[in-house]
Specification:
Blueprint (H helix, E strand, L loop, with lengths): L8 E5 L2 E5 L14 E9 L3 E8 L5 E4 L4 E7 L17 E9 L2 E8 L11 E4 L7 E7 L4 H15 L8 E6 L16 H18 L3 E4 L9 H10 L4 E8 L10 E5 L6 H11 L14 H4 L4 H24 L10 E4 L10 E8 L3 H8 L1 H17 L5
Parallel strand pairs: 11-12, 11-13, 13-16, 14-15
Antiparallel strand pairs: 1-2, 3-4, 4-10, 5-6, 6-8, 7-8, 9-10, 14-16
Helix pairs in contact: 2-8, 6-8
């Protein structure tokens, strides 16, 4: 049975009903995705259908170079053993696989141009019988005039208020007696992320989202308290803002993290240990998570939340790169056991830059750069698919 990710789960144990509202660690992110098959077909109304089957739920984006449709799937490698089964009478002349870093680009060459696909033309089907996940794209040929019109409409649509007010939890890290990392020039992490958090809230409010700050001033909040805050407000997305430090002052750039019980690399492990140590300065010490609550959500639900977090993180990394925000060397998206991300709300921890780097410390203090970061995060949230 397919379980939908919920904000509150009731667990029957020994005749007692437990209300589980938070502090539930997600499982490690799924193994690397794999391409299973590709096929085309013709649908009523002269529609061309492209079906891409993958082992796991794909984190994808679409782009539209001239006479092409490109499906960008994260965390996937090309597989020469998988060739597209092409039906006659479609707009697709051939399909190729192109590896770009950690992403597989599936490039469909088209006989005629198409307009941007809207959500009604896209389906993401769950595994069923002998089939794995299937990304289904339906489209028809479009005249140049209609494409130009669609682009203009798309630009206007992007500014519209979402029909449903999705709830975004913005978490400026550290605060109060916990300053976070401190740059050589004396810049405190807690001040930078609070400034960015306030700007982000204002921009998202303008865009029609419902937003909450875990802290709106210089207040200390436990990591578990931040996760509980997101649960209580039924958040749809949790964004934890931080600034990094590194023993090497030459290291700079943003990086993005999602929750995993095993760190993706040694640097991610050390960063998680550093961030998790924030709770140790509290009177009550570091919060432990109850074993019974760990079992409250099914592995399927934990898996789904982890995948949604990964999808957002990859989209956010793309938005930063598109805004020409410098990335830290290595993978833009990494994984580690961050306590603040332990909840049923999909989310990511954004390291906006390095205060240990002198030039980046100065940059992070400027309103122009903070606004640049905020604009990229807003774009990533607008592009995130809350409904799939």
């Amino acid at each position: 049975m397919q379980m939908k990710v919920t904000r509150r789960t009731l667990l029957q144990m020994g005749g007692i009903t437990f209300a589980v509202v938070g502090f539930v660690p997600r499982m490690a992110f799924a193994a690397r995705n794999a391409l299973r098959s590709m096929r085309t077909g013709v649908q009523p109304g002269e529609k061309t259908r492209l079906v891409i089957e993958t082992a796991n739920r794909p984190s994808y984006s679409l782009s539209y170079p001239e006479n092409q449709l490109v499906v960008d799937i994260a965390n996937m490698s090309a597989d020469s053993s998988v060739t597209a089964k092409l039906a006659s009478g479609t707009l697709i002349s051939d399909v190729k696989q192109v590896q770009v870093d950690d992403h597989l680009h599936i490039v469909a060459n088209l006989r005629k141009p198409i307009a941007h696909l809207d959500k009604s033309q896209i389906m993401l089907l769950e595994p069923n019988g002998d089939n794995d996940y299937r990304l289904v794209l339906d489209f028809t040929a479009t005249s140049a005039e209609k494409i130009a019109s669609a682009v203009k409409t798309g630009e206007k649509t992007e500014q519209k208020t979402p029909q449903k007010k999705h709830v975004i939890i913005i978490d400026p890290g550290h605060g109060g007696k916990d300053p976070g990392c401190i740059g050589k020039g004396g810049t405190r992490e807690k001040d930078i992320v609070l400034s960015v958090g306030r700007k982000l809230k204002a921009r998202l409010d303008e865009a029609g989202f419902k937003t909450y700050l875990t802290r709106a001033n210089d207040t200390y909040i436990t990591l578990a308290g931040r996760a509980e805050f997101a649960e209580a407000r039924k958040g749809d997305l949790f964004i934890s803002l931080h600034a990094n430090a590194n023993p090497s002052r030459s290291v700079k750039g943003f990086s993005i993290y999602t929750l995993s019980e095993k760190a993706s690399d040694e640097e991610a492990k050390k960063l998680a240990e550093s961030e998790n140590a924030a709770d140790k300065i509290g009177v009550d010490g570091f919060t432990e998570f109850e074993r019974d609550i760990r079992a409250a959500l099914s592995s399927l639900q934990q898996h789904a939340v982890a995948e949604m977090s990964e999808e957002y993180a990859n989209g956010c990394a793309r938005a930063f790169r598109a805004a020409k925000v410098e990335a830290q060397a290595g993978p833009s998206v990494r994984h580690a056991p961050f306590a603040v991300l332990r909840s049923t709300v999909p989310g990511a921890l954004l390291e906006l830059g390095h205060l240990s780097n002198g030039s980046e410390e100065k940059l992070l203090k400027t309103p122009d750069h903070q606004n640049k970061l905020v604009a990229a995060i807003v774009r990533s949230i607008k592009n995130y698919n809350f409904d799939v």
